[in-house]
Amino acid sequence: MRVISAAEVQAALDFETLVGRLRDVFRRDVQAPLRQQYDIPISGEPDQSLLLMPAWQAGRYVGVKIVTVTPGNGPRGLPAVMGAYLLIDGRNGSPSALIDGPMLTLRRTAAASALASAYLSRPDSARLLMVGTGALAPHLVAAHAAVRPIRDVLIWGRTPAKAQRLAKSIKLKPVRIEATEDLEGAVRGADIVSCATLSSEPLVQGAWLSDGQHLDLVGAFRPDMRETDAEVFRRARIFVDTREGALAEGGDLVQAIQAGALEPEDVAADLFELTRGERAGRRFYDQITLFKSTGSALEDLAAAQLTVERV
Known about the structure:
Distance between the termini: 13 Å
Number of helices: 11
CATH class of the largest domain: Alpha Beta
CATH topology of the largest domain: Rossmann fold
Shape: globular
Strand order of the largest sheet: 9-8-7-10-11-14-12-13
Oligomer: single chain
Number of domains: 2
Order of helices and strands: EHHEEEEEHEHEHEHEEHEHHEHEH
Mean pLDDT: 94
Low-confidence stretches: none
CATH superfamily of the largest domain: NAD(P)-binding Rossmann-like Domain
CATH architecture of the largest domain: 3-Layer(aba) Sandwich
Largest sheet: 8 strands, parallel
């Protein structure tokens, strides 16, 4: 069995190729049951989450990702998300590869947002706001820049020093990347707003949105978490990666429904419908679109297959 490192995963999964592979896998017959999540109490800090995410393409590959999300890891200098991916031969059941889980997750998550953006953001989108300074942020910036002509990026975080360090660390020519402490002003001026935080309180307010914007909501993977208020959902046309996952786990979406901002049937489309041409994405230039991502095991399977092919 091959063991594939984080560096090898990142080198294998360039966003242009990975976005195309995700588009293909959402069009195919790949089985991906809703992930299993278990909350594990840790004394003196927020609960840890254990996530099990299986998927398979009959006769070809079976895979499962085992992930822990530990919000209290920040002070330890460790990433909140860690884990591993096991890829199995679908014909004989033998393990094929053990792949670094965090990097696989970072690349496929960012690529899913870029895939959605290709259908939902304006083709001329040039200004990106990144809300959040965690491990996923630089990958989201690069992924959005792979599908849209991004020229200016602002990064906002609760700790300004972290936002400044992140802005300096991202090398993406000819894109200009700077930190900001003015979240409202940055939201109002962005073409695309991408959020990847562990927030449980709204950060982005619906009153701040401008016509023609696209919102990419990647954090809030539990029903008690959220990155936006309900007004955001009243103003935007809503899309998700998978209906089953987003309606069960997407905190922003779940709480907006509970607040009466929309009904489950108001979700315009998921990535299956968008990639297969069954539903339209952005309908007109001034429309506000929103993509809520909770992640799907089929994304992991596609990224794992591509990694093994290239390493």
